[in-house]
């Protein structure tokens, strides 16, 4: 019975690697297609803005994710016929041009870059939530502490998992991919700490949405802005959590040959969703309304202090074309003067003084 068991395992591994190739290709296509689809809107909004922390994160993930997925597709391709071809993405140095060092170098490098991209995606979503809470110190420090702690724990788990995975790593001439026979029991736990952080982001976003729900009824000018913020937050959470749970299930229940099955889709998904949240907000803020009266919505993507952030200022007043304000409820007109102030940490504020 043993030969049949080994044959069954080999057949299953070949099938799972084959599916992984297709899903990795899908992840790359989604990443590139989404970028090309939004390139015009991006050039009119994000690209024209000054270089700030959110913008740097945006373009880093936009560039690094397709590059990493291209490397992953090459690593999984079945067109390579020899061991030495596994070192082609690396320098042709004797240390790297063999199956074990090249596979180990690829696995460590691509996995750590992927984790960095995950961290930056969650950081971009964190900046948005910090802005929603108007940079309240307690919220800011709680979120950043949770974010850094969760990803440091994830980094430790990943390094241990990669070390265990690399003990028997080799280039399989049957699977035409880097493979291993050793796995860490902590592999599913890699996804748990970031998942807990994303649940926290969603919970705080939902609480803030409940607090701000009255603004939907008080002013139609605020409705599009808040709708985009909370709609995107809900969509991000549902999709990212679904893909994370799928990956946890894969690493907890499936053979080691399924290791590449869902991880690259998670990479593409997190980059697409986090950058779309940023782009949608930038597009809404920079959009022009060809009307005589317009709601004043001041949203700034800026990094005024070392933690960086997205600064938002929403005015619930209507500005007429004669530079007077109409306050809600009173219907009266008042002249206005704008004062620009900075607080103790350098956060820009706009104060309107009515004469």
TrEMBL record:
Describe the location of the DUF6533 domain by residue ranges: 22-66
Record bears the keyword Transmembrane: yes
Keywords in UniProt for this one?
Answer: Membrane, Transmembrane, Transmembrane helix
The membrane-spanning stretches of this chain are 20-39, 108-131, 138-166, 186-207, 228-252, 258-279
The lineage's top-level taxon is Eukaryota
Instruction: Using the record, list the residue span of the signal peptide; answer none if the entry has no such feature.
Output: none
Q: What protein name applies here?
A: DUF6533 domain-containing protein
């Amino acid at each position: 019975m043993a030969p049949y068991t080994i044959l069954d395992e080999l057949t299953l591994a070949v099938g799972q690697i084959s599916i992984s190739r297709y899903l990795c290709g899908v992840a790359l296509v989604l990443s590139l297609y989404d970028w090309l689809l939004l390139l015009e809107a991006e050039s009119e909004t994000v690209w024209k803005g000054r270089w700030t922390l959110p913008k740097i994160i945006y373009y880093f993930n936009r560039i690094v994710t397709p590059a990493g997925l291209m490397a992953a597709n090459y690593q999984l391709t079945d067109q390579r016929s020899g061991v030495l071809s596994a070192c082609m993405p690396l320098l042709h140095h004797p240390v790297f041009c063999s199956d074990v060092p090249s596979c180990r170098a690829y696995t460590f490098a691509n996995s750590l870059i992927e984790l960095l991209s995950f961290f930056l995606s969650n950081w971009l979503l964190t900046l948005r939530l910090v802005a929603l809470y108007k940079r309240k110190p307690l919220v800011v420090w709680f979120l950043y502490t949770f974010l850094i702690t969760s990803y440091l724990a994830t980094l430790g788990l990943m390094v241990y998992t990669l070390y265990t995975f690399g003990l028997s790593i080799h280039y399989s001439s049957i699977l035409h991919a880097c493979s291993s026979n050793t796995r860490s029991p902590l592999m599913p736990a890699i996804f748990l700490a970031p998942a807990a952080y994303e649940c926290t982001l969603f919970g705080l976003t939902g609480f803030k949405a409940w607090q701000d729900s009255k603004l939907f009824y008080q002013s139609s000018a605020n409705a599009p802005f808040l709708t985009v913020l909370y709609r995107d937050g809900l969509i991000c959470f549902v999709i990212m959590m679904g893909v994370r749970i799928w990956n946890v299930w894969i690493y907890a229940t499936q053979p080691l040959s399924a290791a590449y099955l869902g991880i690259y889709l998670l990479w593409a998904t997190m980059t697409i969703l986090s950058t779309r949240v940023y782009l949608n907000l930038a597009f809404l803020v920079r959009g022009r309304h060809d009307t005589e009266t317009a709601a004043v919505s001041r949203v700034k993507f800026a990094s005024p202090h070392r933690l960086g952030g997205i600064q938002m200022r929403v005015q619930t007043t209507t500005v007429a074309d004669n530079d007077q304000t109409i306050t809600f409820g009173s219907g009266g007109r008042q002249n206005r003067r704008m004062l620009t102030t900075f607080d103790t940490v350098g956060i820009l504020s706009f104060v309107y003084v009515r004469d």
